[in-house]
Amino acid sequence: MAAGPIFLTESPFAGDLCALTFSTCFALSLLRGFEETAKRGVFDQKLNRKLVHITIGLAFILCWPLFSSGSQGAFMAAIVPGVNIVKVLLIGNGILKDEATVKSMSRFGDYRELLTGPLYYACTIMLCCTVYWRTSPIAIAAICNLCAGDGFADIIGRRFGKKKLPYNKDKSFAGTIAMALAGFIASIGYMYYFSIFGFIEKSLKLVVGFLVVSLASALVESHPISTTLDDNLTVPLTSVLVGTFVF
User: Fold this and answer.
1) What is the distance between the alpha carbons of residues 146 and 2, in angstroms, rounded to a whole number?
2) Would you tell me how many other CB atoms lie within 10 Å of the CB of residue 205?
3) Is the pTM of this model over 0.70?
4) Is 71 exposed, middle or buried (0-12, 13-18, 19+ CB in 10 A)?
């Protein structure tokens, strides 16, 4: 496929520019929407942050089929999270003031928090673009477990997580189960989505692989080390490492 199905042009580069423009506007619109909900207090701050966490990455990879095949499309797509990395670095270092972004992405409203979790999140998505791209189940697993898995683990864990894990009193059975299920279901969904465009061939082997990766990611997320290092770092690392062996 020379360029995405919507932006078919004689020039793959021109098609990728159109895809980049659309993807950037789409991502920024979503971010702007959550900044407004955070500013207006529509959701609890923790819930708003997790909705951003779940939505942005999953919405962005919906746009991957718009780009051309090969390294050009991959690197053009990576510009979208790359721009967000620059923004996070500027805000996290106090160079740029943006209270709405801080409120929608941080746990406690401290701009320096953006230099950990949100930065790891954006870096994961950019690396999945440039290193694995849309033909690799590892990219699907890493992003789906980071976004859907980790996001729902927190939401479900806070609401229904009365029964705590014996090895980590800050985590619950409900949250860990929710993470494994959400990451797995999202991975299967994107396997079917990318198979429509011929990027991945759906199979039982992939389904089993996604299940193994989601279970491993959920176990690592529930371990105290993920609180120490940040689960936005440990979850994608686990997905990549385990995915390398099972896919």
Assistant:
1) 30
2) 12
3) yes
4) exposed
Segment holding 168, helix H or strand E = strand 168-172
State the virtual CA torsion across 50, 55, 61, 62 in degrees, nearest 10: 160
Answer yes or no: are the C-beta atoms of 48 and 38 closer than 8 Å.
Answer: yes
Tracing tokens 């689960």 back to the chain, one arrives at 231
- 186-205 pLDDT, tens digit per residue, is 999 999 999 999 999 999 99
Q: Is 165 helix (H, G, I), strand (E, B) or coil?
A: strand
Distant-in-sequence, close-in-space partners of 246: CB < 8 Å, separation ≥ 6: 208, 209, 212, 213
∠ CA 114-169-214, rounded to 5°: 65
Residue owning tokens 């590892």:
138
DSSP state of 68: P
pLDDT digits (tens, 9 = 90+) for 7-63: 655 678 888 999 999 999 998 899 889 888 888 888 888 888 899 999 999 999 999
Residue 118 identity:
P
